[in-house]
Design brief:
The chain is an alpha/beta fold. Strand 5, helix 6 and strand 6 form a beta-alpha-beta unit. It is globular. It starts with a helix and ends with a helix. Bound molecules: pyridoxal-5'-phosphate (PLP).
């Protein structure tokens, strides 16, 4: 409660538009649980964060891997790769493991080009390592009420709390409500909550 309140006021996002996970890794698995099954696909770059591929496989979805351009996400090809059965398109920015970023303006354009029936996941696990002026500001898109955008962040990287397991997602009320349905009620341990609260003040 306290952590959600604090994060909500810092981000200027309603508390019911935030979900915490046992690491953002857990949220990626929730996404696959909700949206993937045989015959449904997830689109991502060929060298993007491996957990997306593992979670897709776990729920027997199809993984569509798109070649990169100089180890950078090729946003146009990613859009072209979306098929009628695509449920999720995932962009990791900055990307892990290639360490590359996409142009913030192009990313915003991309988000608006993803079809409304496809969930666009922007994983910002390494957001804090980017110079502030290069960081995309996607929160206004969430505030505008967009239903098919989920931003993932974590306390594991910039805040150095990986061992405590705490990450979060920001999205529409409807999307967060759906994700909460597959979440165990007590998925977040107390120490992680206390540490994350302190980290937000740092
Ligand atoms: C580390 C990482 C995560 C998962 O982090 P958690 O420790 O589970 O919060 C998710 N996505 C990317 C791109 C990462 O690098």
């Amino acid at each position: 409660f306290y952590l959600k309140e604090k994060l909500s006021s810092q981000l200027e996002i309603s508390p019911d538009q935030i979900i915490f996970g046992n690491g953002s890794n857990e949220l990626i698995v929730f996404l696959a649980h909700l949206y993937l099954e045989p015959g449904k696909s997830l689109v991502m770059s060929e060298h993007a964060f491996a957990v997306y591929a593992l979670a897709t496989r776990l729920y027997q979805g199809d993984l569509i891997k798109v070649p990169m351009n100089a180890l950078t996400h090729d946003l146009e090809s990613i859009l072209d790769a979306i098929r009628p059965n695509t449920q999720i398109v995932a962009i990791v920015n900055p990307n892990n493991p290639t360490g590359t970023t996409v142009d913030p303006t192009k990313l915003v354009e991309f988000i608006h080009q993803v079809p409304d029936n496809v969930l666009c996941v922007i994983d910002e696990a390494y957001l804090e390592v980017m110079p502030i002026e290069q960081q995309p500001n996607l929160l206004p898109i969430i505030r505008s009420g967009k239903d098919n955008l989920l931003i993932l962040r974590t306390f594991s990287k910039g805040y150095g709390l990986a061992g405590l397991r705490i990450g979060y997602g920001i999205g529409s009320k409807k999307l967060i409500d759906q994700l909460n349905r597959v979440r165990q009620p007590f998925n977040l341990n107390k120490m992680a909550q206390v540490a994350a609260l302190a980290a937000l003040d740092a």
